[in-house]
Amino acid sequence: MAATSNMTGIVFLGLSQNWDVQKIISVMFLLMYTAIVLGNGLIVVTIVASKGLTSPMYFFLSYLSFVEMCYCSVTAPRLIFDSFRERNIISLKGCITQIFFLHFFGGTEIFLLTVMAYDRYVAICKPLHYMTIMNRRVCGLLVGAAWGGGLLHSIGQTFLIFQLPFCGPNVIDHYFCDVHPVLKLACSDTFLIGLLIIANGGSISVISFAGLLASYVVILHSLRSHTSEGRRKALSTCASHVAVVGLFFIPCSFVYMRPCVTFPADKIVAVFYTVVTPLLNPIIYSFRNAEIKNSMRRLMGRKVIWEEK
Predict the structure, then answer these.
(1) Distance (Å, rounded) from C-alpha 249 to C-alpha 209?
(2) What value does the mean pLDDT take over residues 287-302?
């Protein structure tokens, strides 16, 4: 890259160019990031430490919460740190690295959400064979496949950006490095690269969304034969998952499933899938789930007893 690029750093314009507004945004992001780490971290600790939360659904949820923490950590700390500097500059290598981890954790989350939809399909449509089908080995393979799929997606996106020459300008109207804003900085024709980037991200989104949609169509069809209480519990569980899917997929689709052009609203939309969704994940999944809430109370109770001793 050094042989073909004379750009040493990239300047972020951030969410606002007003210094006072930027300070307010920094404080808000700091509070939200803290809540994301504490909320999702509490879910992971509760599921790992609780003997009662052993079903595949909670196994997948613990990994989803962990990925949410990692995903948000790619962008939020940098924005918080940059708000204390007059010029928000990142090196070209640092920018490529940020793109890699952003798409690695983002792709992994998409695949995990798809796996969780399949888990709900098996639990509701094949309840007698649920634990046989979703045994520990299968769950481990599905999580491994989600991580592997996210890695392959990220390598593809990063490779397409990495081979481009960059020679200025070096300013992007965003608060983190992403493929579309960075493509505008290349000093070569990026039409074909843009199509490959859309094909990479778009195919994953379309296939995953189709799988999610098919799972819930079958689930809704099968619920006709369930009792009213069974339908209520199943719909409550599925509603939480659908809410997270919608909060993540809709903003991502707006940004990545279109021609490689940038809009001023992109960075505002990016806040939703990089910060808002990880923030709401603990609220949607935990505070509406009696088993997780009870496990958290028991966990806190054991901690209080241990501290008293």
Answers:
(1) 8
(2) 75
DSSP string over 131-162: HHHT-HHHHHHHHHHHHHHHHHHHHHHHHHHH
Predicted structure pTM score? 0.88
Q: How far apart are CA 31 and CA 39, in angstroms?
A: 12
Strand order in the sheet with 88-91: 88-91, 9-12, 171-172
Pairing of strands 171-172, 9-12: parallel
Q: Two tokens at 57?
A: 């659904």
Locate 49 and state its tokens. Answer: 């430490």
Contact 269, 178 (CB under 8 A): no
Query: Per the structure block, which two tokens stand in for 137?
Result: 């080995």
Q: What is the pLDDT of residues 231-242, one digit of tens each?
A: 777 777 677 777
pLDDT, tens only, 68-111: 999 999 999 988 887 777 678 888 889 999 999 999 999 999 99
Asked if the model's pLDDT at residue 7 lies above 80, the reply is: no
Max CA distance (Å), the chain: 68
Instruction: Work out the number of other CB atoms within 10 angstroms of the CB of residue 125.
Output: 16
**Strand ranges inside the chain, DSSP E:** 9-12, 88-91, 171-172
Distance CA(55)–CA(59), nearest Å, equals: 7
Domains in the chain (CATH in brackets) are 9-308 (1.20.1070.10)
Evaluate whether 108 touches 143 at the Cβ level (below 8 Å).
no
